[in-house]
Task: structure prediction
Amino acid sequence: MRLADWIERERYLVATALMIGLALPALAQTPERKVTAGGSCLACHLQLDEARLHDPAAAFAEDVHNRPGLGCVTCHGGNPKAEDPEEAMDPKKGFRGAPKIFDIPKLCGGCHANDAFIKKFSPSLDTDQLAQYRTSVHGQRIASGDTRAATCISCHGVHNILKVSDPRAPVFPTHVVDTCARCHADAALMKPYGIPTDQVTKYRRSVHYEALTKRNDLSAPTCNDCHGSHGAAPPGVSSISNVCGTCHLQNMEFFQQSPHAEPFAEMGSGACEACHGNHEIKAPSDRLVGMGKGAVCAGCHDIDDPGGTTAAAIGASLELAVEMDDRAKAEVADAERKGMLMEDADVELEAANEELVKARIQVHKASLQAVVAHTSKAVSAAKKALEAAAAARREIRTRRAGLSVALALILIAIVALVLKIRQIER
Ligand code: HEC
Ligand code: HEC
Ligand code: HEC
Ligand code: HEC
Ligand code: HEC
Ligand code: HEC
Ligand code: HEC
Ligand code: HEC
Ligand code: HEC
Result:
């Protein structure tokens, strides 16, 4: 029998085989994420009614540890092949039950401090969390038997632990505030320590929170960027009083050159907090400099001590430059509204603005000379813009005068014409 004849006769068989062949790869793919590492523990716990026993199994589908080799058994021990509960959860088979709070850091750290093991799964994952955690107030409190402080699962959750880059994770920048707030905004919980519980409320009013949540600027700090996630301070920062400098490099550099660096260090006051606070940092304004109402300098200096005198002078030099700049901006805008091209003046205004920005950063040196170096340039740029605006005003006046003369001549011509017409009519 020829092949074509056979295919013709057995066409239903062939079609079925083809369909199965085509469907097989699709069946082998599992598009939905399934629990792959639960064994009998998962199978049984999914069927239990009690939430405490059922929920951990149900949540595990999303857990970052849900992958071959990292099932329930890696944290709880036991035998995931046994169907019988006694056998599966036999302490003699290493079953440990639910870990006690004091054992959790060691449990998580058991893997997360094991560099060789972790790198097999995730080459870029750091393995310093446990070591760092032990230096933190949280780690020390837990180690001393205090159950109120945070362990790994207070911040990461458990059974639904997500990658830290997952926007749903409780440690994702936009959720950190809520995670810390659970304890730090709970006055009853924090009462024994006598520390404030207003950090969250204050932070939510800060320029940093606004940048993070309103402008989606993930480079703006939330709680753990300043305090560290695991350690007493973020890695690379010797003390939290230096943390602002990791992002505001120039302000820190200038502050360190200022007469404040030494006395502030001696007073044990953080470099930046003395003037900006820590949690409720607001967008600063020029009124903070000087000896006027609302100026931070006036909080520590008298007008007749050297610091106060300099502060007043710095404030005055900024005020003058800003006043000139404002006037120049207004006059240039006015000329533009009247139809004049003011490109050169705009360049000067831009330059004045840049110098003002620089002057405000130089305030951190607390040196009149450093600030004036920029305010004087701002003033001369603003002056040039003002001169351009004055020239534009003169030009407008000349043009108006020219226009009036032309109008008068036209009027005279019309009157003459009318008279002439009447004369002809008569
Ligand atoms: C056939 C069902 C079954 C199997 C299989 C099973 N469990 Fe359980 N598990 C239970 C029941 C029922 C309880 C509640 C027992 C109790 O309260 O004494 C429980 C309790 C637990 C608890 C809570 C213990 C505590 O201290 O409160 C943990 C953790 C646990 N199981 C983990 C596991 C792990 C890990 C495995 C697999 C190695 C496993 N279970 C296998 C039924 C099962
Ligand atoms: C990454 C480690 C880890 C893995 C993996 C893990 N657990 Fe747990 N489990 C814990 C910790 C830690 C606790 C204690 C939670 C607490 O104190 O709130 C716990 C508690 C439990 C409890 C007791 C809950 C209670 O409120 O008493 C059960 C039941 C449980 N786990 C079951 C499971 C099952 C089933 C799996 C697998 C599907 C699993 N766990 C996977 C770490 C883990
Ligand atoms: C006070 C809250 C808090 C505690 C306690 C905590 N973490 Fe974290 N953890 C975070 C935050 C926030 C991040 C994300 C930012 C980062 O990577 O620093 C993070 C990140 C991580 C990462 C990912 C690190 C990376 O390199 O991407 C791991 C792993 C981790 N934590 C494990 C642990 C372990 C293990 C413990 C307990 C020893 C623990 N964490 C305790 C808040 C916490
Ligand atoms: C059996 C070893 C083991 C234990 C125990 C363990 N982990 Fe993990 N964990 C891993 C591995 C491996 C990964 C990387 C998984 C991956 O990226 O696929 C991981 C990933 C993570 C991540 C995600 C990091 C990232 O990439 O963003 C966090 C957070 C985390 N673990 C926290 C914990 C916490 C909290 C505990 C304790 C409750 C814990 N782990 C216990 C092995 C473990
Ligand atoms: C489970 C509750 C809990 C969670 C969640 C928690 N903390 Fe704590 N934290 C505490 C307790 C309790 C202390 C001990 C207070 C003390 O000793 O002064 C503490 C201490 C601290 C301290 C030291 C305070 C001091 O005395 O100088 C800082 C800073 C801190 N936590 C920041 C954070 C940050 C940031 C987060 C979120 C990423 C966070 N905590 C999450 C309970 C928690
Ligand atoms: C811009 C940096 C920054 C951010 C963001 C920040 N802190 Fe702080 N925090 C500080 C500084 C600085 C201190 C003072 C430390 C000192 O004087 O030793 C402090 C002090 C604390 C303290 C000790 C008690 C107190 O009030 O003096 C706790 C607790 C704390 N912060 C929790 C938080 C929490 C929770 C968040 C998030 C809502 C947060 N911090 C956000 C910088 C920051
Ligand atoms: C993780 C990086 C980071 C850290 C740490 C940090 N900041 Fe910021 N800060 C930012 C970002 C981002 C902005 C928003 C910039 C913008 O949008 O104008 C900002 C804004 C500010 C502003 C307002 C600037 C303006 O022109 O309105 C001040 C003041 C400020 N921070 C002071 C501090 C102080 C003081 C600390 C330490 C207690 C600190 N910052 C810690 C990143 C950081
Ligand atoms: C002696 C008081 C004082 C100290 C200390 C101080 N600042 Fe300032 N800071 C000011 C004043 C005043 C302004 C407002 C200047 C203006 O707008 O004219 C300001 C403005 C700022 C601005 C906004 C202007 C800009 O540079 O973009 C930032 C950001 C800032 N400070 C960060 C810091 C940081 C970071 C530290 C610590 C290294 C710090 N400041 C220490 C007084 C201080
Ligand atoms: C937290 C307190 C505090 C604040 C706020 C403060 N200073 Fe000072 N300042 C000091 C101390 C302390 C010294 C060193 C002792 C002294 O000379 O009075 C000092 C010294 C100075 C000096 C050097 C004085 C000399 O002897 O030559 C100048 C200039 C100065 N401050 C300017 C400022 C300016 C400008 C501001 C506001 C932007 C400011 N200070 C805000 C505490 C402060």
User: Anything to note?
Assistant: The pocket of heme C (ligand 7) is lined by residues 207-208, 211, 217, 219-221, 225-226, 243-244, 246-248, 272-273, 276, 278, 281, 283-284 (CB under 6 Å).
